[in-house]
Amino acid sequence: MIEQAFVQILLMLGTSVAAVILFQKLHIPSSLGYLMVGVLFGAHTPGPVIDVQQIREVAEFGIVFLLFTIGLSFSLPQIHALRGQVLSLGTGQVVLTTALIGTGCWLLGLPPATSFVIGAVFAQSSTTIISKQLTEQGEENSRHGRLGVAMSVFQDVTAVPLIVVIPVLGVLDDDAGVLFESLGWAMAKAIVAFLLVFMLGRWLLRPLFHSVAARRSTELFTLTVLFVSLLAAWTTSQLGLSMAFGAFLVGMMLGETEFRHQVESTIRPFRDVLIGLFFVSIGMLFDPAAIPQNWQWATIGTIAMLVSKTVLVALIVRWSGLDGLTAWRTGFLLAVGGEFGFALLAIALDVNAIANQYSQIVFTSVLFSMIVAPFLIRYNHVLAGLLVRRSVRRQNDPETLPVSADATQHLHDHAIICGYGRIGQSVGHFLEEEKIPYVAVDLDSARIKEAHVAGEPVYYGDSSERDILEALGIDSAKLLVISYDDVLLAKKILHHVRALRPDLPVMVRTRDEAHVDELRQAGATEVVPEVLEAGLMIASHALLLLNVPFKRVVRRMQQQRAGRYRLLRELYRGEDVFSDNPNILTEDGLRSVLMLPGSRGIGKKLSEFAFDGVTVSSLVRQGSREEDPLDVFIVEGDVVVLFGAPGTLDRAERLLLG
């Protein structure tokens, strides 16, 4: 029996490793890979079957540790700091979506408890999918990108009360009085648990971890973290509440201490493995054979989720004071279902708060939404543009300070700044110091009003629209600066600019070198990678502090910019296969090639080799760099340092080694 269980575990782990590698290679969230493994080893598919109960008993601790780490990230001071926009928007989205979907299900005849569970599950969004897709398309630092990720992360906190409420629903009849009484008791217990953990955490946790840290024992620190988190989980379990709730509370307390980062680092391996098992156990509950019977309802559920969340998020973001385009773009980001919804669904199944038939429909609906999600996020600007009419985006209300030809007709040989955030304002102030006329355009109405009152020439408008660029006087402009980090919008602006003014110099800001070539091909005259420029400035200050002459520092900076930051791009990439950067495997980098006995290059000069797309950075002999590497005869033991793309580096290495 033990041998059979051991074989099953090995089979499951091996399949999980293969699935995660495959899904990461395809840039698909690993959680979906674990779900697929669960489906393969579940009772509803042919092939080996693993006892789901045994897996669930262990995997439940994955949710415990997940909530523990969420608590670390959202301590009381941090939640207080977020009490403004993010807290109100995140909470409002979850509450309104749960209420709207839940009410709709109840009107369709579903039990109240089931309706509530469906609404709560649909209210969650996948932070993993949102952040990964935004990073791939270069929108992670855009206004809608930052807001969407912040709201999706904060949803995890708002899900904590749901973890308290859902177990209560499973033991209730349809009697409303019993419902409210039980919920009242659950909330009272939650308050008692909070006060208990809060007081003990304030009095005991910090001294305890100080004492443990003084021992300088990693083993002891790990044991203490496990003990504290599981003790809190057991405490709330004894009160009739979820174990995950206790773990979240103690995580909040530890999040206020100086040990927060070390605790998170210690618990992460346990959390990641157990969360994987948790999603495997959820996948085992899914019955693929039910899709032909339920696909109509699942499709309706997916549409209801996507539409309701998009509209609700757009409305509350618009209500908060942001422009309509940003509101709709944020709505499309958060429309997707989330992995935490699966966790809530599993909890509801455990306590019989939802029937298996409905759970299959809900599971399929969330899965469908996650499949559609990359397309919604990828084309969020196009879709938002279709919904926000030009007359609304550029209304004639003088309070919005719209762009008009009358306001800019006096400008000539001026600069146009697209986006008036931190970078755009800095550029504008320097231009003003040099008495160079400029005009800026942005979609943040509050920022525009403040700047306009201060006498700065900034107007409301979408710079990716052709008629807005014409109204800004692109025909007589001398320079156009795209100051925000949004690759898709930048390419759209470049398309219009090259159609209207092929000769106009355009400077584009980007975060790093990943999109430099892409933007240059789209028509950018100059692309400024923010990360590389920061590295350049830090290096220049370091040289000045080391008493390097100022003129030499300036000359080196100019050489780097002229050479497209080659020295700053010459990095050893390593094997960062888990990087969120989708271009990590294609970016230029350095590679060290050790000349082994029998290598083809021994006895030859590097200048004799025709390296295609690769440059020789240096030749190291016995720990010292040769001054002129191209004209030195290679000997055994030399290290040749090459710079280029991974594919070209492979070919160059084969040429040297033979």
Automatic annotation (TrEMBL):
The keyword Transmembrane helix applies. GO terms for molecular function: antiporter activity; monoatomic cation transmembrane transporter activity. It is a multi-pass membrane protein. Residues 575-658 form the RCK C-terminal domain. The keyword Protease does not apply. Signal peptide: none annotated. Its main location: membrane. It is found in: Endomembrane system. GO terms for cellular component: endomembrane system; plasma membrane. It holds the Pfam family TrkA_N. Residues 412-529 form the RCK N-terminal domain. The chain crosses the membrane at residues 6-23, 32-49, 61-79, 147-172, 184-205, 273-291, 297-319, 331-349, 361-388. Keywords: Antiport, Ion transport, Membrane, Potassium, Potassium transport, Transmembrane, Transmembrane helix, Transport. GO terms for biological process: potassium ion transport; proton transmembrane transport. InterPro entries: Cation/H_exchanger_TM (IPR006153), Na+/solute_symporter_sf (IPR038770), NAD(P)-bd_dom_sf (IPR036291), RCK_C (IPR006037), RCK_C_sf (IPR036721), RCK_N (IPR003148). This is Sodium:proton exchanger. It comes from Methylotuvimicrobium buryatense (Methylomicrobium buryatense).
